[in-house]
Amino acid sequence: MTDHAADFCPLPPSLRAERRGAVAVLWLHRAEKRNALNDTLVQGMVAFFDSLPDDIRAVVLAGDGEHFSAGLDLTELEERDVFSGIGHSSSWHRAFDRIQFGKVPVVAVVHGAVVGGGLELAAAVHIRVAERSAYYALPEGSRGIFVGGGGSVRLPPLIGVARMMDMMLTGRTLGAEEGQAIGLTQYLVDDGAGMAKGLELAERIAENAPFTNFAVTHMLPRIARADPAAGFATEALTAAIAQGEKEAKKRLKAFLEKRAPKVVRG
Ligand code: 1HE
């Protein structure tokens, strides 16, 4: 891959970005510390997602080395008073929110250890691709801490409260096949094939109408959590706005004039 770091904002050495057409690839680039997430790295991700060039339509997030991420950098787990502890956890919430509710859809490619804050990070993206080496754990229990990167909000809808309790209380790890079977990941590929799959998906996503991608990533999760009456009303408004977009009219016309591809079984 060619390095086009100049396309993006300055990043800390623990992050590395590349452009592939309309897709940006962001690498956690701290393999010597198993991509442990320190504050500099987390704030670097905020800067990256906030300043994406307008022509970037999707992002792939991956980890260098043998593991996606070892989670919170435990060397930064200094003694904090309650108030600054809340501030620290909130800073992760804000950072991961920028990914989940950012400008474009994000695909994570995970492999090796996807643990603690690394799993919380993976839970904040829109599509997860796992290589067979991936395994998931929440070692916070054994470290005497608690999830603080939004895991208790984002993981239960993906894997269920009971499974999350089991992982946190007993240290149980899930393998890549288990993660795929329970819907934590959407794609499972052989080791080494994750980036190609992630790029293929991101390139497909980048072709969608930008408003549809916005509606799917920003509106759908909120509608899904709303009470049904508010959900139906919000869905109707979102649908009406989407169909009023020039891009939708162009795409519908192309289909009706037999210029657009049919839906075929993949
Ligand atoms: C680290 C970290 C880290 C590795 N913080 N430095 N996360 C954990 O409890 C997971 C802790 N890490 C591990 O269990 C293992 O490192 C791995 C299974 C991920 C990888 O094992 P391995 O054998 O490939 O690597 P290693 O020899 O254990 O680690 C290599 C180096 O990375 C070593 O540093 P070195 O200077 O001795 O070479 C490790 O100290 C360093 N390293 N993981 C800091 N996490 C917002 S709340 C979220 C709460 C959490 O995320 S809790 C979960 C924390």
Plain-language structure description:
With 266 residues, the protein is an alpha/beta fold. Helix content is 47%, strand content 15%. It contains 11 helices and 9 strands. A 6-stranded mixed sheet has the order 1-2-3-4-6-9, with helices on both faces. β2, α1 and β3 (58-63) form a beta-alpha-beta unit. The radius of gyration is 19 Å and the shape is globular. Bound molecules: 3-methylmercaptopropionate-CoA (MMPA-CoA). 3-methylmercaptopropionate-CoA (MMPA-CoA) binds at residues 33-34, 36, 66-67, 70-75, 92, 113, 115-117, 139-140, 143, 145, 147-149.
Instruction: Please outline the major beta sheet.
Output: 6 strands, mixed
Mean pLDDT: 95
Named once each, the bound ligands are: 3-methylmercaptopropionate-CoA (MMPA-CoA)
> Over all CA atoms, what is the radius of gyration?
19 Å
Shape assignment: globular
Helix and strand content put the structural class at alpha/beta
Order of strands across the widest beta sheet?
1-2-3-4-6-9
Q: Provide the helix percentage.
A: 40-55%
- Amino- and carboxy-terminal Cα gap: 27 Å
Order of helices and strands: EEHEHEEHEEHHHEHEHHHH
Which residues sit in consecutive blocks of at least 5 with pLDDT less than 50?
Answer: none
Strand content: 5-15%
The count of helical stretches stands at: 11
Structural descriptors:
266 residues; alpha/beta; 6-stranded mixed sheet; 3-stranded mixed sheet; 9 strands; globular; binds 3-methylmercaptopropionate-CoA (MMPA-CoA)
List the helices and strands and how they pair.
Blueprint: E1 15-20, E2 23-28, H1 39-50, E3 58-63, H2 82-100, E4 106-110, E5 113-115, H3 117-123, E6 127-131, E7 135-137, H4 140-143, H5 151-159, H6 161-170, E8 174-175, H7 176-181, E9 187-189, H8 194-206, H9 210-225, H10 228-244, H11 246-256
Parallel strand pairs: 2-3, 3-4, 4-6, 5-7, 6-9
Antiparallel strand pairs: 1-2, 7-8
Helix pairs in contact: 1-2, 3-5, 5-6, 9-10
